[in-house]
Every structure is written in structure tokens, then in C-alpha cells.
Design a protein that fits this description.
This protein is an alpha/beta fold. It has a single domain, classed as Vaccinia Virus protein VP39 (Rossmann fold, 3-Layer(aba) Sandwich). It is 41% helix and 22% strand.
């Protein structure tokens, strides 16, 4: 298990997703959720008393719904998409049941491959959302994904895309080398596909902008350290492991580095910031009249 596991992978660990959930919730941009909720009333007028339909694309164990549903007012029906039936069951079993104003939240699951998302899969959507997803797309998959979202003609909130920027305190010279190797691993070829890695969010922003959507980006950093020792240790293991997988010549130095960093973590001395970016894409004001 590494930090590059994704909702695109059928083998993603439920344990890892649960472990990272509090850090994800703390990192996601409250400002973009505020912008999202501001954009909803005009669209709710057309919906009336019917529930907003929220599609969670690559839902994993459902953490996005547990975070976002209680922040949005009004009845909601969540459609959870993932290719892993275990994760879909876990998400449905622990789904939120009420919105910000106490309105009912209902859930359905769909086993699907997000890399092959089509516009008809999202018919009738009020909001589209995803978390920790974009960096595992290749270029043509991301283009199809954005095209399907644009055709759905509704707000799109995509959170926690990696940027490739990591800062550790105290710093070491090896930090920079490991960061570069990890970012290469994020852009690796897998089954004939070249992953976009840290560039994905910027490319997605450009695609939405070109389609006439208004795009806002905001930082969504993980802050790790003594307050989250288990998550920090797992992140360290995955970060160094991916870097040394990409550059095996770093393996010996990486093992010694891990020992030092684990000792610093145990002593309460290690602080890590892992940068992500959140993206909100809103249709132009004259778009979405059918909603």
C-alpha cells in the first residue's frame, strides 16, 4: 500500500482511506464549499422540492459524502460510483443521513469505471464531486472525464489533487531528491498509460475554462506530525517507497532516512506539510437553465 493508491484502483485499501479521512476533511477548502453553496440557490429553484442529485465519482469508502453532505442544505440523493464493490458497500453502509438543515440524504451505488465516464452516466446531476482522483488519470482519460462533467452542466467540486510539493521540518538534503523521485513515480507509465500526477489539476482547470466554466482553485494541505502519528508513519512509508521504487539506487539511503524520520516522529519533532489543490468549476450564469 502506498500513497499513490487511487480510487481508480480496485485494490485500494479501506484501512488507508479510513486513516486519511480526518486529514482529508481538515484539508479540503471551506472557501470553495461556500462558493458552491452560493451557486446552488438559483439551481435549486428549478429543482423545487426534489432532492439535489450528487454524483460522487470514485467514491472509495464514502468520505467525501460524509464530509460534504452535512455542509449543503436541502434534500440530497447521492449516487456513489466506484469500480470496487467492497468500497461501494462500505460507503453505503456509512453514508450520511442528513443535510446541513436536517433534510434527508439518500444513497445509491453504481459499480463503474470512472476512466470511461460518459455524459449519460451523469444525466440529471445537480453537483459532481470527487476526491484524490485526478492525478491517476492519463491525458485522454482526463479529457473524457472533464467532457462528461461539462455536459452534465452543473457545479463540479474536485478535491485533494496532489501538487507534488512536500515540506518536512526539520528539513534534510534528501527531502528534495525523494520529492523529485516520488513525483516521477506519480507520472509513471502503467499498462501503456502515462499518469498525469501533479499536473492533473492544472490541466483539468484549463479544460473546464476552455469549456466556458468559471474555475477557482484553493490550497488543501495535509498537516501531519505528532497529532496524527499513524497516518504520518504510513504516509512516510508510502512516499519513500514510491520514490525508491522509481529510483532503486535511493533504496539504502531511503531506509536510513525512514529510520531517522520515524525517530523524529516518535519524539514529537517531525512536522510534514503535503500540498494538494481543490478545484471548483461552475457553469457560466446562463448555463444550466434545464436544472
Amino acid at each position: 500500500m502506498t500513497t499513490v493508491e487511487s480510487h481508480l484502483s480496485a485494490g485500494v485499501s479501506q484501512g488507508w482511506l479510513r486513516l486519511r479521512e480526518p486529514a482529508d476533511a481538515a484539508a479540503r477548502s471551506a472557501a470553495l464549499v461556500h462558493r458552491l453553496t452560493q451557486a446552488l440557490p438559483e439551481r435549486r429553484t428549478a429543482v423545487g422540492d426534489a432532492a439535489m442529485v450528487v454524483h460522487d465519482l470514485g467514491c472509495g469508502s464514502g468520505s467525501m459524502g460524509r464530509w460534504l453532505a452535512p455542509l449543503v442544505a436541502g434534500p440530497q440523493h447521492w449516487v456513489l460510483h466506484d469500480r470496487d464493490p467492497r468500497l461501494l458497500r462500505a460507503a453505503a453502509d456509512d453514508a450520511p443521513d442528513s443535510a446541513a438543515d436536517g433534510a434527508r440524504v439518500t444513497v445509491e451505488t453504481r459499480r463503474s469505471d470512472i476512466t470511461r465516464l460518459r455524459a449519460d452516466h451523469l444525466a440529471g446531476a445537480s453537483i459532481l464531486t470527487a476526491s484524490a482522483l485526478l492525478d491517476m488519470f492519463c491525458a485522454d482519460e482526463l479529457e473524457r472525464f472533464v467532457a462528461a462533467c461539462v455536459a452534465a452542466d452543473c457545479p463540479v467540486l474536485l478535491t485533494l489533487s496532489v501538487t507534488g510539493c512536500v515540506r518536512l521540518h526539520p528539513s534534510e538534503p534528501l527531502d528534495v531528491e525523494l520529492e523529485a523521485a516520488f513525483n516521477e513515480h506519480q507520472r509513471r507509465r502503467v499498462g501503456g498509460r502515462t499518469l498525469l500526477g501533479p499536473e492533473a489539476a492544472g490541466i483539468a482547470a484549463g479544460l473546464f475554462t476552455d469549456a466556458g466554466f468559471r474555475v477557482e482553485l484553493d490550497r488543501a494541505p495535509w498537516h501531519l506530525g505528532a497529532h496524527s502519528p499513524e497516518l504520518t508513519a504510513e504516509w512516510l512509508h508510502g512516499w519513500v517507497g514510491a520514490a525508491t521504487e522509481q529510483h532503486p539506487e535511493l533504496a539504502a539511503a531511503g531506509d536510513a532516512y525512514l529510520e531517522r524520520r520515524r525517530a523524529e516522529l516518535a519524539a514529537g519533532l517531525l512536522v510534514v506539510t503535503v500540498q494538494h489543490v481543490d478545484l471548483l468549476a461552475l457553469p457560466a450564469p446562463n448555463v444550466g437553465s434545464r436544472k
